Amino acid sequence: ECDVFNPLSVLDLLSELPAPVGVFSNSDHLQTVTALAAAYLNLPGKDWQTCYRAKNKAAMRQYLKALDDGACWFRAVNDQRSLGKVIDDVPFPCIAKPREGVASLNVRRLDNAAQLQSFCDQFWQEQPGQPLLLEEFLSGPVHTLETIGGGKSLIALGGFEVRLSEPPHFIELAAAWVPYQPDSPHLQEMFRQVRRFGVGLGSCHSEFVITDNGPRLIEINYRTVGDGREFLLDRMTDHGLFHAILQAHVGNPLELSPPTQAAQIRYLSASTSGRVRRSAP
Predict the structure, then answer these.
(1) Across-strand partners of 180?
(2) How confident is the model at residue 177, as a pLDDT?
(3) How much is the pLDDT for 64?
(4) Residues 201 and 149 sit within 8 Å (Cβ to Cβ)
(5) Distances from the Cα of 279 to the Cα of 127, 164, 267, 272, 276, angstroms
(6) Same domain for 153 and 260?
(7) What CATH number does residue 237 fall under?
């Protein structure tokens, strides 16, 4: 056993084991540690700086600002004092979300300062000191881009058109698969943005808002898409997506083609709170 969030602890443990042929994790939280371990062991791995920027949403926004590529207003806050310093500058509506959060958990659209203050109060009561990222609200439909890299090559598989619940929450209700086409203006631009960000080896799931000015990056999750869509992609991909990901992480060439089928996935969500007593026949 070891502290998997500490790369030194991971390396100490690996030094006691037979030499690995690859180092891999699909966890949001472990991409940076995994990349550092792979680099130390001279094994195929993701760039650890890109992994860190992808997981830390404030670092991602700062990097996009430095690149002057789709930057938007943002601030990171971790208590009432830091919130008080920026609250007069917040463009409403805004989005508040954990700086290193996962999916739509604790992600909220807020329309005024009172709502923002109330949300932050409740969040910090439950998670004291945890940083929140405030950023401008980007209006438009959500579209993902799914990529896989084999070292020097990066393949765009396509993306999902995502249907969300009404604000202030962002609950995914359905997703329709859109195969990658070279003449697709949105997917081409998304592909350009993730490549410039530094995405390469392995699987990556990126989310965009299609605004009036084109795709704007919401976040990069440097791992495979979740919520059941990863199994859908695995079934649609020749030789299997999971097999290709593991092959990339042990240095073998990619053997897959982007899926061309049509597909849709729907999620069942409760309209009210309650307890499940039995399943449908």
Answers:
(1) none
(2) 95
(3) 94
(4) yes
(5) 34, 25, 15, 16, 7
(6) yes
(7) 3.30.470.20
pLDDT, tens digit, for every residue of 197-235? 999 999 999 999 999 999 999 999 999 999 899 999 999
Domain-terminating residue out of 136, 162, 180: 136
Structural domain includes residue 55 = no
Question: For residue 109, what are the CA distances in angstroms to 83, 139, 150, 198?
Answer: 16, 11, 37, 29
Number of domains the chain is built from: 2
**What's the predicted TM-score (pTM) here?**
0.92
**Residue with token string 């969300």:** 164
Instruction: Provide φ and ψ at 238, rounded to 5°.
Output: -65, 140
Query: Hey, what amino acid is at 230?
Result: E
Q: 108-139 burial by CB neighbour count: b if 16+ within 10 A, else e?
A: bbbeeeebbeebbeebbeeeeeebbbbbebbe
Runs of H (alpha helix) within the chain: 7-14, 31-40, 48-55, 57-67, 80-86, 113-126, 185-197, 229-236, 241-249
